[in-house]
Design goal:
This protein has about 400 residues and is of the alpha/beta class. Helices cover about 40% and strands about 15% of the residues. It contains 14 helices and 13 strands. Strands 3-2-1-4-5-6-7 form a 7-stranded parallel β-sheet. It has a 6-stranded parallel β-sheet with strand order 10-9-8-11-12-13, with helices on both faces. α9 packs across α12 and α11 crosses α13. It is globular and about 65 Å long. The model has no long low-confidence stretch (mean pLDDT about 85).
């Protein structure tokens, strides 16, 4: 049996975020395909240890927390660096305000991966995000090296700041730094075709597209009388700004036509959203089927971002009618107008939602098309990855 190692600073458990779901689903697919999959977790958060160990067992490499440096001089240096924002100043000087590709991969983590590589032989290693690409340097030419990019990270600060997100809150690389990380791989994985084309321009390495296969659990569609909307998101500031703008600009328009409409907000975004006039905070919900079963229409009024909006494709897998923006539809463009509705202004967004609630035949049609789209999407999600890995054993 061939052995594969996933190196990630993102845990797979608890599985309550889009990137965690993606990593775990891909790992499960690889196991089902006959790979012996191991997981090297680059975080040392104690809260993740038990759920990670329960799932991975002996195939988990868990980074122990570093021993604290109690030397007085070291503590003083760290304090001074923090007060003077030296790291931020250095980034501005070296990377024009952006990060370096290895800024999140410490020498402590590198030593940990090097020890794993020395004691084990892996046929394939996958680094989750280009920021973990430094781990690939620990493996020799006999190991096939891959990067699951998730997102384009270069110059993403420009996209976010145009929409009002503070640049200091956006992790961004320069083009040269992203290329530096990508060039360490034998194969680069893009999450959707638009980003694949970008990476193909940036690196000479082979680029494949691997989408996000979702659970298929169609729910009943006769639910319009409740008129409940759902937004599910992480703590990212882009999600916070998007749902706040929806509450401020779209909900008043909706209530003019649908005075009893309700907005449910779920996920870690609830920790940062303040003073929504119409939204009810649900917090984190472990069972998505229960959450979706309580709502009628899923919304994702995302204004900015990269990658594939995993919460969108997840909703389609539950046959949920979805209204999102053209940014949210990136990577899923073939489904616009059939599997889901897309709108970019408050008036358009409100009109799409009102249409779904006023026309039950449209509601049922969008729901059925959503499920069919997700089903078809799943069939091709891992096709290129399977072909790439199968070619290694030929």
């Amino acid at each position: 049996m061939q052995k594969l190692l996933i190196v990630s600073a993102v845990p797979t458990h608890p599985t309550n975020a889009g990137n965690r779901i993606r990593i775990l689903r891909m790992a499960r697919m690889l196991m089902e395909d006959g790979w012996e999959v191991y997981f090297a977790f680059m975080g040392s958060n104690a809260e993740y240890h038990a759920p990670m160990a329960a799932y991975w067992g002996e195939r988990l490499f868990y980074l122990p927390p570093p021993k604290p440096d109690r030397r007085l001089l070291s503590r003083i240096v760290r304090k001074v660096k923090g007060l003077m924002q030296i790291d931020s100043v250095l980034r501005r000087l070296i990377h024009k305000g952006k990060y370096g590709v290895d800024d999140l991969f410490t020498s402590y983590q590198q030593a940990f991966v090097q020890e794993i590589a020395t004691r084990n032989r892996f046929n394939v290693v996958i680094a989750e995000y280009v920021t973990m690409s430094g781990a690939l340097l620990c493996f020799g030419p006999a190991t096939h090296k891959m990067i699951d990019t998730h997102d384009v990270l270069s110059n993403r600060d420009q996209k976010f700041t145009q929409k009002g997100v503070r640049a200091k809150n956006v992790f961004a690389l320069s083009l040269n730094e992203e290329k530096k990380g990508l060039d360490r791989a034998d194969t680069v994985i893009a999450i959707q075709d638009q980003e694949r084309r970008f990476f193909e321009e940036l690196t000479s390495k082979k680029v494949i597209t691997v989408g996000h296969a979702v659970e298929l659990k169609p729910l009943a569609t006769e639910r319009r009388e409740r008129k409940k909307l759902l937004f599910l998101g992480s703590r990212h500031e882009a999600n916070v700004l998007s749902i706040q703008e929806f509450d401020e600009k779209v909900m008043p328009l909706l209530r003019d036509t649908l005075p009893d409409i309700k907005l449910l907000v779920a996920g870690k975004v609830c920790e940062k959203v303040k003073n929504l006039r119409y939204g009810k905070m649900m917090g984190e919900i472990d069972d998505l089927q229960v959450l979706y079963g309580q709502t009628d229409v899923v919304i994702n009024p995302v204004l900015m971002g990269t990658g594939l909006k995993i919460k969108n494709i997840e909703a389609l897998g539950y046959a949920m009618p979805l209204v999102t923006t053209t940014v949210g539809a990136e990577g899923l463009e073939a489904g616009i107008g059939k599997a889901f509705l897309a709108a970019d202004t408050p008036a358009e967004f409100a009109r799409c939602i009102c249409l779904l609630f006023s026309d039950q035949s449209l509601y049922r049609s969008v729901s059925a098309s959503a499920y069919a789209f997700a089903e078809q999407y799943n069939k091709g999600a891992y096709e290129e990855l399977n072909q790439e890995l199968n070619s290694l054993s030929e």
